[in-house]
Write a structure and sequence with these properties.
- Helices cover 71% and strands 3% of the residues.
- By secondary structure, the chain is mostly helical.
- It has a two-stranded antiparallel ribbon with strand order 1-2.
- The longest helix is centred in the N-terminal third of the chain and has 56 residues.
- The N terminus is likely disordered.
Length: 309
């Protein structure tokens, strides 16, 4: 019922294709969507990039994975993170103006409502409608619509997934048995075999700690936090903990990439707190910006997790 089809463009990659009678069962079976994603074009591009980087640099595979994570984070996500910081700074600086315009609008709607006999419900409708229009005009004027700040997420998550699956393919031999053999001897220290999970749990626990530190640094910012932001912070705390056992079950190559990527994310987060670096990235000054960000982070974390009575 099954046949092997050789992909000529890949020159040696084997893909499994089902005959029509078995295709539906395969797509609906366990792992069907996962396998299709793992064999998708973006994942194969990531595989080619990893293999090309390792061959060009002549590094052992563990070092190539670390360097690849650093390059992607620095070349792709850091500029997007700086762009996000600029947008968020503009949005923060708009809040006083929005508040002032909202108060003026509330007064005008109240006066108009008394003149034409609007009910409280109708007056509230006109207030919200006009306030939304005013805010949208301000966003257009300053080119800082909040949705643009989500660009980082829409790029970072797919990139992370594609590279992770590419490393998974290399580890299980889905790409090339020769690459899998290189992975099996391409580790270092306690994780010499990149195709096997880290039995010591050092990589998974380190990953969890770095991710938790990123979340806590974000939560320590001196600014008003909405209920949604509090829920999001708690959600990412849970995800950081859940990722520990997940990272302990995947090949060490994936856990190493996750740890390297998170560590670079931590470094970039700290870098984007620096007033000097923010000015270099043309991030506007804000009321919440601190002249001593790193001292403030240490103080906030110390105060939050101090066991002194």
């Amino acid at each position: 019922m099954w046949r092997l089809a050789r992909a000529g463009a890949r020159g040696g990659r084997l893909t499994v294709a089902a005959v029509p009678g078995a295709a539906a069962a395969a797509s609906g079976g366990p792992g069907g969507w996962y396998e299709r994603l793992a064999q998708s074009a973006p994942v194969h591009w990531a595989e080619d990039g990893l293999v090309g980087l390792q061959a060009a640099a002549g590094l052992p595979w563990w070092a190539a994975i670390v360097c690849g994570a650093a390059l992607l984070r620095t070349g792709v996500t850091l500029p997007l993170a700086a762009h996000q910081s600029r947008l968020l700074a503009k949005l923060e600086n708009l809040q006083p103006e929005i508040k002032q315009l909202a108060e003026r609008l509330r007064y005008e709607v109240s006066v108009r409502g008394k003149q034409v006999g609007w009910s409280e419900k109708v007056a509230r409708f006109h207030f919200k409608k006009n306030l939304k229009r005013i805010i949208t005009e301000l966003y257009v004027r300053d080119n800082c619509h909040p949705f643009k700040a989500t660009l980082l997420v829409w790029v970072q998550i797919p990139m992370w997934v594609c590279v992770s699956l590419a490393l998974r393919n290399c580890s299980v031999g889905a790409t090339d048995s020769e690459v899998q053999e290189q992975f099996s001897a391409g580790g270092t220290l306690w994780f010499t075999d990149l195709t096997a999970p880290d039995s010591t749990w050092i990589l998974p626990v380190s990953l969890g700690l770095v991710n938790l530190l990123i979340v806590e640094i974000f939560a320590s910012q001196k600014m008003e936090v909405s209920r949604f932001q509090k829920l999001a912070t708690n959600f990412f705390r849970v995800v950081s903990v859940v990722m520990i056992p997940v990272a302990a079950t995947v090949p060490s190559s994936m856990a190493l990439y996750w740890l390297s990527s998170s560590f670079m994310g931590l470094v970039h987060n700290l870098l984007l707190r620096s007033p000097t670096f923010r000015r270099l990235c043309r991030v506007p000054r804000t009321k919440s910006e601190s002249a001593t960000p790193y001292r403030d982070i240490v103080s906030a974390l110390t105060a939050k997790y101090s066991f002194k009575k």
